[in-house]
Amino acid sequence: MTSFAGGPKRGLMTLLLWGVPQLSLAAKFNMRPGVTEMSVRVQYIHHIGLWVCVIVGIIVFGAMFYSMFAHRRSRNPTPATFSDSIVVEFLWTLIPVLILVGMAIPATTALRDIEDNENSDLTVLITASQWKWHYKYLDSGISYYSNIATPDEQIENLQPKDEYYLLDVDKPLVLPTNKKIRFLVTADDVIHSWWLPDFAVKQDAIPGFINEAWARIPVAGVYRGQCAELCGVGHAYMPIVADVRPEAEFDAWIEGQRLAAELAGEAAVAARAKTWTMVELLPTGEEVFVKHCATCHQRDGRGQGAKYPALVGSEIATGAITDHLNRVMNGKTDTEMQAWAPQLSDLEIAAVITYERNSWGNDTGDIVQPITVYEAR
Amino acid sequence: MVAHAQIVPKKRHPLLAFAARWLFTTNHKEIGTLYLCLSFLLFFIAGSMAMFMRLELFEPGIQFVDPLFYNQLLTLHGLVMVFGAVMPAFVGLANWLIPMMIGAPDMALPRLNNFSFWILPFAFTLLLSSLFMEGGAPNFGWTFYAPLSTTYGPPSTDFFILGVHLMGISSIMGAINIIVTIVNLRAPGMTYMKMPMFVWTWLITAFLLIMVMPVLAGVVTMMLTDRHFGTSFFDAAGGGDPVLFQHIFWFFGHPEVYIMILPGFGIASQIIPTFARKKLFGYHSMVYATLAIAVLSFVVWGHHMFTTGMPLFAELFIMYATMLIAVPTGVKVFNWIATMWRGSMTFETPMLFAIAFVMMFTIGGFSGLMLALVPADIQYHDTYFVVAHFHYVLYPGAIFGTMGAVYYWLPKWCGHMVDERLGKLHFWCATFAVNLTFFPMHFTGLAGMPRRVPDYSLQFADFNMVSSIGAWLLGLTQILFLYIVVKTIRGGEKATAQVWEGAEGLEWTIPSPAPLHTFETPPVIAQDHGH
Amino acid sequence: MKETPRYYIPHSSIWPIVGSIALFLTAFGAVNFIHQSTDKVAATGSFGGPIFFTGLTIIAVMMFGWFGTVIKENLNGLVSDQLDVSFRMGMAWFIVSEVMFFAVFFGALFYARIISVPWLAGASNNLQTHLLLWPDFAETWPLFRTPGGATTESMGPWGLPFINTIILVTSSVTVTFAHWALKKNQRRALGFWLALTVALGATFLTLQVVEYQHAYQELGLSLDSGIYGSTFFMLTGFHGAHVTLGTIMLSVMLLRVARGHFTPDNHFAFEATSWYWHFVDVVWLFLFTFVYWF
Ligand code: HEA
Ligand code: HEA
Ligand code: CUA
Ligand SMILES: [Cu+2]
User: Fold this and answer.
1) How far apart are CA B518 and CA B4, in angstroms?
2) For B345-403, what is each residue's pLDDT tens digit?
């Protein structure tokens, strides 16, 4: 550090002029620049705001501290008597106005561009619900849910937290680089907000309305964000992950998804046509249960206290099949028991219900067929 | 609490007499005391909730408070601080001070005054009892956005709604009383432009209250009918819009935040001239600036809604209007500094609080200005940057303002001087702790931490730990404040009528402690009084 | 009125605390009642109705006692001109707050008409809302068919509503005649015009009930027929509630007139009531224009 060679005074100056801005702009203390052109512009506007405030602050607080020092009673025993001055009052009205105009100009032009959703190359419909995201590529019809992937054990401090604690999902949103991507954002239940800081996109998801936003991402990579509107107990647990890939890779991915969807469709038709046996359904049922249901109802189906009912001997899980189907497919409003129909296939629902009705001591002997689920949809 | 002669009929059991005195009182000073005590109690309740929140936020992961309960704490913390701590504190000060400052015998409508107060304990009972109800307390934030609060709200939401109605009735009646007192009961010669700034700011605040509290009442009514009677104000399927809720809420909400700061401006404008021993600089521009802030506050509500998909022109208009508020607010800040300029300052506790108020409110104002820049707000919105902003304007703003006022006028109220050493200790601890708590929130916010979460990812851990430590320190310093106030009331150096050598105004012409009834016949206001 | 040197400060009063308790009971009872009757929580045995009506009754008693005290003070000459002005200002600001309360519901109406309904049909920056979420929805006002599919017919302006307009405007005139009569100390004319005003108020309310029946039974227009029904019933309903209150206030004035209260220059209660009545009338004119007519 050569700059400290000039003695303490120079060192201090360096610290102030170079060190403090460096520190305050360091990643940890500052808004990050993000990856898109727009996010860089937004950071620039943030910097304008920040520095205007810092400079005005230094002047204002400087004057104040000077006055407190120089005009304290021991130094200035007789106070002055002035209490008005048209000139300074005019000046300190005018100057802030000019500063504000200076700040408003870049903000206005940037805002105009942010709101310009025309000419997009690709449209993704984002639908939020408590507490997951659903992505649908309108151009190719592919759609899927994206759920948080952080295990509960980490949240409950039973396991060490990994690097992307709370910021990991099972299926990220895959996007191409260098295309103008239009996001259509809406919600099924309450208001959520789709926020990806690195794209400078934050758009509220309002049930019944569609909001628009866009991004053009020059650099491939994985970008993370979170829901940014209080949406109930799971608000902290609905991360957003975008996996941005070069165009060719993206196209290949789309093709792969299309094939997979076709296969799933064919499989579903086949599943419906077939009459399944208990032995065939139970393993699938167990798999689905462990993956989706056990967090609340527990692996042994005994639930957790009053809040998450036990399925062992439960009235619904051992009663009429239609009620059971209904509860699992449509959930129960205003509780955490969500509707699973949109998320699971006919076969999966049939299997999990069969599993529930014939495990842990439940022995109804009922077998639910995918066709029944299909008809109940 | 304050030793005055009592005017309840004699020959009653002392306990009954005590109850009767406080329940039936129509005296502005006693009602002021009631307001201040209630506000302090609720401040502690809401503060303890914040302590639990900060405990949970000390580390990532869920440790002490489950997410559902966290949301309830959050909601009640916000609501009780806003409606229970800040607003009643300011009304309490208004009750104590306005009649004394304008030479009035009491508030204009004394019985109504009592009514306004006694509704509040019931309103908060209704609100806080929801904690013990099936389904828990309201859990949708103090802004209670639909449909989270309508379709998905717990049953206790309805108690919350009616509680808000009661608070609204109380505030409106209180505000009417204050306006009428100021307009109709000024002593002869006390012209508008001679009124102390505190009275001016309250006049304008009361006007804001009358304009926006009914709006809040309207929106909660719509919530109630949407919840139970099939209306669809906030439901797109019926032709309504969830965002309509936000428009109405913030039409109330933004003026509300100025309701929580304008009296604070008034307090600073009283304290600073006293200890600078110099007249308030730019009195007239101070009045006009307050008016300008109030008028502008009606057209900027949309700045809380920049991410809801408003059309471009609306966003631009709101951005400009919001930024414009910095101008009159700046005028006030500059006037305070000009008042200090070439004065002859001493730094007793009230002055320290007033100066800290000016500085830290300005810091909060600065972040407000940054929030007003729409493209940047898209990144700031619903992050801890916003939490930092509003705690800077609310804690070192509204709360420091109130505490400064208590240090400043307490000798007048109870006749004892405050222990300066303890007062200064409280000040320095509180200032340190406030900044330790809320400054790091700017950084967590900029780094991308959403607000209203009980749990967060690892990159935010350090700053949250600092904030939590700061918050507990801040909590402890409030206990010191309580101790100081109680100690001062119970004894201490006797205060003179003047109390502070540089103080000007009618309240300093009456003895300390102020007798229960003052100015039963109007005082004479000197021609050269005031400004 | 005689000039009293001192501003009258009542020493203590039980009515405010009685009123606070009553408001608490009313609020608490109302919520329990709603919960019981809408099954939000199984709250049988929470006595919603009785608590609510107890609250209301105590409020009535409180008003009676409170205003009775004020009247007595007035008759004892404790009310100075200055206090009279305080009362007037208080009433005026109270009406301002009421104006704001109605403004919210008008705001919701205009929001629905200018913003939410057109937007749901694709206006402004909401084309996708229309295309993807509500493709079959078309904008109309009155909203005959909501995006969700609820249907209703509209309430035309020229039947009962128009008659009600005439009734209410007339009643505003008659109450003014009553006021003039009071100022000229013509007690019989005062009684006549005041009684007529009360009668007109009651007629208005009756017709309003008939109109609501018509709406529910023949038009299918109800609280749950979408935003049109919501704004229609909330606006006319709150207005109706205010007319009811105004009519009760006028009736009390009529009783007091019968008992010989009020003098040509001391009749604040009467004036406050008539202000209130005019306010209710003006609100109706806005209602008629924007809810029924355009
Ligand atoms: C006392 C309360 C108070 C006060 C006084 C203010 C004052 C201001 N507030 Fe704040 N605000 C809140 C309480 C308050 N606010 C609360 C509670 C919320 C969050 C609500 C919620 O969502 O829960 C909020 C949120 C909030 C938002 C929404 C953020 C978001 O959710 O995305 C915005 C956006 O514009 C904003 C802006 C402002 C501005 C511009 C001011 C201005 O009035 C500030 C003006 C002051 C100054 C600028 C400093 C002094 C001036 C000078 C020294 C002059 C020279 C300066 C320059 C020219 C730079 N506030
Ligand atoms: C005037 C208003 C006001 C005041 C004074 C405060 C004071 C405090 N606030 Fe809060 N706050 C709000 C208004 C206010 N707040 C609002 C409106 C919200 C938004 C809510 C929402 O999003 O809906 C909010 C939200 C909010 C959050 C964000 C939560 C989230 O988004 O998830 C946090 C987090 O740290 C917080 C913390 C604090 C702390 C530590 C204090 C401290 O200053 C409190 C200090 C006081 C005490 C501590 C009480 C006295 C002491 C005791 C009772 C003794 C016990 C002490 C110990 C155990 C140490 N507040
Ligand atoms: Cu979804 Cu918060
Ligand atoms: Cu605001």
Assistant:
1) 12
2) 999 999 999 999 999 999 999 999 999 999 999 999 999 999 999 999 999 999 999 99
**pLDDT digits over C131-165, tens only?**
999 999 999 989 999 998 888 988 888 889 999 99
Q: Is the CB of residue B82 below 6 angstroms from any atom belonging to ligand 2? A: yes
Greatest extent of chain C over all pairs of C-alpha atoms, in Å: 73
Rounded Cα–Cα distance for residues C245 and C242 (Å): 5
Nearby residues of C110 by Cβ (< 8 Å), 6 or more positions away: C290
Q: Tokens standing for C245?
A: 């209150």
The pTM is what? 0.92
The ranges assigned to domains in chain A are 29-114, 122-259, 274-376
Measure B257 CA to ligand 1 centroid, in angstroms: 9
Residue A333 pLDDT exceeds 50: yes
| CATH number 2.60.40.420 is the correct assignment for the domain at A122-259 | yes
Cβ-based neighbours of A283, under 8 Å, separated by 6 or more: none
Structure tokens given for A91: 């000046």
CB-CB under 8 Å, B285 with A79: no
Q: Look up residue C164 and give its amino acid.
A: N
Which of 58-117 (B) contact C at CB < 8 A? 104-106, 108-112, 114-115
Asked if pLDDT for residue C191 goes beyond 50, the answer is yes
Chain C, nearest residue to B214 by Cα: C101
> Is the CB of B84 within 6 Å of ligand 2?
no
Contacting residues of A for B446, CB less than 8 Å apart:
29-31
Q: How far apart are the C-alpha atoms of A285 and A311, rounded to whole Å? A: 14
**Chain centre to alpha carbon of residue A313:** 38
Domain A274-376: CATH superfamily, name plus number: Cytochrome c-like domain (1.10.760.10)
Give yes or no for a contact between B268 and B289, defined as CB atoms under 8 angstroms apart. no
Q: Is A81 on the interface with B (CB under 8 A)?
A: yes
Atom of ligand 2 nearest to the CA of B387: 28
The finding on whether B454 has its CB within 6 A of some atom of ligand 2 is: no
CA distance C112 to chain B (A): 6
- Show the tokens assigned to B48: 């303890």
Q: Where are the domains of chain C?
A: 1-79, 81-293
Amino acid at residue number B98: I
Q: Provide CB contacts within 8 A for A276, sequence distance 6+.
A: A347, A350, A367, A369, A370
DSSP assignment letter at A198: G
- Report the relative pairing of strands A239-245 and A173-176 from DSSP bridges: parallel
DSSP bridge pairs for B317: none
CA B439, CA B443: separation in Å to the nearest integer?
8
Contacts of B135 in chain C (CB under 8 A): 41
E strand or H helix that includes residue A23: helix A20-25
Beta bridge partners of A224: A241
pLDDT tens-place string over residues A95-107: 999 999 999 999 9
The partner residues of B416 in beta bridges, in order of sequence, read B494
The CATH fold assigned to C1-79 is: Helix Hairpins (1.10.287)
**CATH number, span A29-114:** 1.10.287.90
Q: What is the length of chain A?
A: 377
Question: What pLDDT digit, counting tens, does each position of B91-145 carry?
Answer: 999 999 999 999 999 999 999 999 999 999 999 999 999 998 877 899 999 999 9
Distance from the Cα of A328 to chain C's closest Cα (Å) equals 23
Q: Is B329 a catalytic residue?
A: yes
- Going by pLDDT thresholds of 50, 70 and 90, the confidence category of residue C43 is low
Q: Is the CB of residue B326 below 6 angstroms from any atom belonging to ligand 1? A: yes
Q: Which residues of A touch C129 (CB under 8 A)?
A: 186, 208-210
What's the ipTM? 0.92
CATH 1.20.120.80 fits C81-293, yes or no: yes
| Distances in whole angstroms, Cα of residue A270 to Cα of each of A84, A264, A367, C43 | 88, 10, 18, 50
- Name the residue among C125, C128, C133 with its Cβ closest to that of A208: C133
